[in-house]
Amino acid sequence: MRRKPVFLKSVVDNLNELQPLPTPRGDWPYRYEIAEVGGVSGETGEFMEFHMVGDTGSLRNPQFQRQVAQSMAGQIQDGANGKEGPGFLLHLGDVVYDHGEAREYAAQFFGPYEDYPVPVYALAGNHDGGINPLNPVPYNSLDAYMAVFCDSHPHKIPFSGGSQRLSITQPNVYWTLRTPLANFICLYGNTTKFGCIDDLQFDWLLHELRALGPEKVDKALFLCLHHAPYSADTNHGSSRHMIDQLEKAFAVTGVLPHIICSGHVHNYQRYSKHYNDDEVVRYLVSGAGGYADLHKVAAVGDERVHEDARLFEKVELETYCDNRHGFLKMRIERDPKELLLIGEYYTISTDPGKLAIKPKLFERFLFPLRMRETQLLP
């Protein structure tokens, strides 16, 4: 079994296709506050739950995206005090394919998620920022994404196909989601295959790491981006640019997140990376949210990929699932000593005739955020 991420030997990056970023809708430093979520109320809450998945859009075989959405919705129930279970979905990018067009949102997002009963917050993926040169109506990169997820006030969306879901008021295409038990720094890697963060966004990242680093004592710190820094798949592989940018930011600020989450690669992978001070950062890839084609992990000895002994020395691929669509359900608990992060990865059937069957638990893991070892749970 492969234990290390890979780089592709044949790499064609499309850096010439970078698009300008839209104007922020909120004030710097672009923070979105949630006071109540997933059973948490203010600073007194003892737990919170949420979903994480990316790459849910699909132009082909939409049954997979519908089943993922329905499976997540099925984990949320009406309780005496409101909804019980995950309080929101943090989407890891690529909401629609192939070019982020407004006309695709009804079929690829609003329809499948009409019955998902809690808010959907979203990073933008490379496809969300794309521009279709064949579209007869000119538009700018991320126009539709901004209307759906970065609105000035909650509204019904005219291109939603009649959905009752209202727009979200995230302040910018890169932004921080603040909750009582966790902070989520959310980046945007633009439209290229391996991602690109400009100087302005990088400076903002440094600011947020410095500002939120001291809160790691009481809150989990997530760093979320669409392009996976580490991956062992044969379609994208790891992103050298994202690795370099993140490691530079960590070195400059002296702040490491507890966990780094991404999509882009259409499978599930879980990594751990050990740093010199014995702090461990977990990397999760959760990009099997519905796009028809899944990405296979490279077999040991695959001639299309190579490893980097220096960059990958302290990075370990602990498990993966590359043959089924699925999603993450996350829970943060406060115990008397520390915060605990419990993750569950669920998969759905690949048989179109069995898509109504409940999702299957692939693995359940526990990260005590101040400890080095990951514990697998029954």
What does the radius of gyration come to? 19 Å
Helical residue percent band: 10-25%
The largest sheet has its strands arranged as: 2-10-11-12-13-15-14-17
Counting DSSP H or I runs of 4 or more residues, the number of helices is 5
Describe the biggest sheet? Answer: 8 strands, mixed
Give the strand content.
Answer: 25-35%
| Topology, number of strands | 21
How far is the N terminus from the C terminus?
Answer: 22 Å
- Uncertain stretches of 5 or more adjacent residues: none
What does this structure look like?
With 378 residues, the chain is an alpha/beta fold. The protein is built from 5 helices and 21 strands. Strands 2-10-11-12-13-15-14-17 form an 8-stranded mixed sheet, covered by helices on one side. Strands 9-8-5-18-19-20-21 form a 7-stranded mixed sheet, with no helix packed on it. A hairpin with a 2-residue loop joins strand 6 and strand 7. Helix 4 crosses helix 5. The protein is globular, with a radius of gyration of 19 Å.
Present the secondary structure layout.
Layout: E1 7-8, E2 31-33, E3 36-37, E4 40-41, E5 47-53, H1 63-74, E6 77-79, E7 82-84, E8 89-91, H2 105-110, E9 120-122, H3 143-149, E10 175-178, E11 182-186, H4 199-212, E12 220-224, H5 240-253, E13 259-262, E14 268-274, E15 280-286, E16 305-306, E17 315-321, E18 326-334, E19 339-347, E20 360-368, E21 375-377
Parallel strand pairs: 2-10, 5-8, 8-9, 11-12, 12-13, 13-15
Antiparallel strand pairs: 1-16, 3-4, 5-18, 6-7, 10-11, 14-15, 14-17, 18-19, 19-20, 20-21
Helix pairs in contact: 4-5
